[in-house]
Structures
1.
Amino acid sequence: MGGHLLAAGTPLAVYDPAGGASDALAALGAEVCSGAHEVAAGSDLVLIVVVDDDQTWKAAEECFEGASRGMVVALCASIRPDTCRSLAELGRRRGVDVVDAALVRGERGAEAGRLALFCGGPPDVIDELRRAVAPFAPDVVRVGGVGAGQVAKSANNILLWACLRADYEALRLGRALGVEPEAIREAVALGSGANRPLEEWGQHRLRWPTKDLEVALALAKEAGLELPFVSTLPGLLDALSVDDLAELR
């Protein structure tokens, strides 16, 4: 993401608590800061790209320390909608606009400069964000108010991992019956079973299925919904490896 911004001529300040994590961007011309507060002090827009709710809270609170009024903070991790709303309220008290901008299409999308962002927040703020992230995210969708982007991301994650597991089992069945996976994929691509994970077979890195599904199931529980099919997916995905997928190429 940072590389695409720098290539487009966007000034970029970065911070990562992991030693050496910012070296590659520094070599491309990014300013490396000593903390999130320093990034915020010199920025109009801050993208918080971390792993979970706890890291998002910590990074956002540090950003607020250095933020000026009118700054935008975009929460890019897959986190709870109520985390987004709570941080948006804290930001409002400081004159900072906080929106959720959940990243979709994963690492490969970031590398290719074709991420999608599912966003929640005021339309004018999302429009501002859309212009800023154009170098790495051609698709920015406002789903609704703050937190709505995370709801859409959880729905997307359910469908991603469900398709991947179903694709795996379908390809195994095909091979067991004497038809190679490549031939199955070519045929299914023309049928009603076509799906993106199948189209991109062999490229998935299986980074976050358990985390993604735990978030979705927790939200369902709080909403009073039972999702029996989705409840089976964490164990089924845990049993899969990248090598398992590669065997069916």
2.
Amino acid sequence: MITRRFLIVAAAVVAFVPPVTTRAADNGAAATVRTFYDTLMQAMKGGQQLGFAGRRDLLAPAVTRAFDLPLMTRITVGPQWANLTADEQQKLVRAFSDYSVATYANRFDDYSGEKFDVDPKATPSTGSDMIVHSKLVQSNGEPVELDYLMRPTGGIWKIVDIYLSGTISQLAAQRSEFTSVLRKGGVAALIQSLRDKVAQLAS
């Protein structure tokens, strides 16, 4: 039999229990970024020994797990995405994914004492999105702020955009170039442009 006293005690217990959903979101979103940083640090420390190809092979699975690359491709392309065929969309996602991996393999090619700091508490954004705040602390002690817009995809928190210094959207910066190439030369031109960028990063 449920008594009045039981209900009062139960209510008091619930009042002091932190919201599980929010706490889980904080931990899961931040964990995605931390795990990605762990692999990025391996690539940096491997540096020249791994070479570009080795860093690319190391980072490819980590980038695929951490980033929602199909969504990022669609956002970067913008409204023109709806006019593409399924085959064109698939090829474009692949080209964008290769470019994303190559960019990390190129830029994080050595280690000189840098470290990554990730705030374990994510900040709520619009809808179910969260923002994870992090810093790349350079060898001279100067921090570079890197914030990640996270979205739950299939039960996993994934990165959908990166903000440099908390304000500059990576996807917004890329969209102008992408849409311009797509408008002038079509999907084939954009895919070739991404492939050319990969070749330049690998050289």
3.
Amino acid sequence: METDTYRTIESKSEGIFKAKGSKFLAFAYYVENEEDIKSIIADLKKRYHDARHHCYAYRIYPEYPVYRTNDDGEPSGTAGKPIYGQILSSSLTNVLIIVVRYFGGTLLGTSGLINAYRSAARGCIEKARIIERIIEDTVILQFDYEKLNVVMRIIKEENIHIIQQQCEMECTIRINIRKSKLEKVLSRLVNVDNLKYELVNL
């Protein structure tokens, strides 16, 4: 059965793992798109510019998940994949985890690296508050002003969140509708004379 909720973290969390002199600083972020991710990674690389590696993994878009892993110079598969494995094992979406490594002078070997990056990511997730979010669709409604009361009654009865509203001769209202209620709500709205709608996030 499909669901319109997903697990993620409420806000940024941090963790640290040490192995043979190397320090692995882990940071988890709630993110919604790849623009957010690029900005966070760039900022962290500036802040920890003297670190040897900035490895990461992310998973976004709960309905059609997109993910990526990056070893940033570590041997292939020893950093990004273990980090991503922790995101999956915690069933998280819309999450970015970056692990910054300060090299301690002693090589850890393949298994040592995998364990270090996995442990750093896991510790970071354990410190985060896991929450459940609702998947919503954003819809723009356009209709004649005289139909405002009818539309607002539907919005109120269906407990819909209004994001933006502008009413003159013609009204434009931007709303968020819970995914599982989308079909029902639209079937009511289309019965309003001359109302047009547009789904903007498909």
